[in-house]
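Entry 14. Structure prediction run on the chain below.
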Amino acid sequence: MTSSVTAQDKVTTQRATGGFALIDSLQRHGVCHIFGYPGGAILPIYDELYKAEQRGGISHILVRHEQGAAHAADGYARATGEVGVCFGTSGPGATNLVTGIATAAMDSIPMVVITGQVPRAAIGTDAFQETDIFGITLPVVKHSYVVRSASDMARIVAEAFFIAQTGRPGPVLIDVPKDVGLEEFDYIPVEPGDVQLPGYKPTVKGNPRQIDHAIRLLRVAKQPLLYVGGGAITAGAHTEIQALAEYFSIPVTTTLMGKGAFDEHHPLAVGMLGMHGTAYANFAVSECDLLIAVGARFDDRVTGKLDEFASRAKVIHIDIDPAEVGKNRIPNVPIVGDVRQVLQRLLQRLDEIDKPADADKTLAWRDRIQRWRDDYPLVVPAYDETIAPQAVIVELCRQAPQAFYTTDVGQHQMWAAQFLKNGPRRWVSSAGLGTMGFGLPAAMGVQVARPDDVTICISGDASFQMNPQELGTLAQYDIKVKTVIINNGWQGMVRQWQQSFFGERYSSSNMQVGMPDFELLAQAYGVKGMVVNHPSELADAIATMLAHDGPVLMDVRVRRDENCYPMVAPGKSNAQMIGLPPQKSPAHQTIELMYCSSCGAKNPSSHAFCPECGTKL
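Output returned:
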């Protein structure tokens, strides 16, 4: 990718190294924090970073593993909307970053990843710690560079930041050979905004005709549903989404990535949909007559059986990435553009048309959803002697409702998604790649970005053991992350699937043997450790954790065999859920058809026709 650079005549040329040009360019792009781990090939860059830290304005956070650096930069970006930056050296340093890069790519997170490389003359010779990180990461980056000349450094950094945060965001890799970092040249800085990339012009404004078409469908829909994904978070479109929902009285469901884009306390909110979504969100998406997909990509964990997903609905799909529009579901009204700008224009058109919406048109629809909500609520079990994992999430939410929450991956992640009610950018979770070990380093990045806020990592005993070494980073920099381990002694979601779909053959999912004492592990790193064993201890323990002025690791021993419900089994439609509340249905009952599509009558599945209204089933 080539570019033209303007405004070079505004600055004075100075003699500098490639390493200086890199650090100076990062600072010019507003970088205050870098997460990384040094090594031989990247030492010229770290030497310039040392000098920059002495001058002030930038700081480096030394992680204990490069994967931690990538996840921390990812968390930093999710919490702020800014580009996260991480460093790793050549060879294993670079390859250790790959999982974090892939995590960011799947969730469209803006990152700039700097890797050291062997000197230019040694590239291709299998030199010590040489890997082709450019080639390795091609499938999981938005763009990538190998810096062949120090004189290209400022331009490449400017391009990388521009690419990472425009259009659909994503990670950009810059691979820097060691001798490029040492090479002296006449340095001319490139300021943000001074770079242009011919041929790269993401569409941000939606097509006016398509917007008008969408308005026509919105006006006639009787059972509309807003389906909101991570693109709405990226665009900062929560105000516009709420305005649209309230204008037409449209219920709103969000994806795992979309949590926080709509106030979950709002009466129109129906929570998350999909594999572990609320029953009422899944019933609603199965029955809606108009689905407005906003910054969502119709991924398999949301849709279940794709050809039965919103099968009775017309679809409006708004997304900035044209590759996503029509990829999994052909929309009736495709609108390519920035979600916020498209919704702003749609709302402007509604004002121009000056024809009020009929709020009563969706009243019956909202009443049906409320009946489903009443009949199939999310339930927190109560046990006398063991702690329900759901109760941990609920108590955290009660005591720290405004905290930033990160999660690892598994049952605890889904319980957190079900029971937490987050504001925009206060939910940080690996959704697309499902990366165990993400939670703690991501929380580290969030806390560095938001030092005056509370950051809580919700983890599992198996996930936590993927990156426990970052406790050392928390201790070194006094990063006040509070980590709560939902400890059931299993790879919980793996065990649940083995129970449900593999004949209760628990192959390699029991984590009890060899589990560390997490309290002592925390103390060994200089972090406060806690253990909670009984329901009566939970509320006070969480209060103690939150009051502690420093990082905390709390090990909560929960009921071992608790499963995460509702659950859409693989290959099933969203209306077919396992494990509705006990008072409504025995555990593991599959709900084939719980209601009539026309009148909402319950349990008509044993009839060819609905006994209430006569509709053919």
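The domain at 389-557 is CATH 3.40.50.970 (Rossmann fold).
Filed with the rest of this week's runs.
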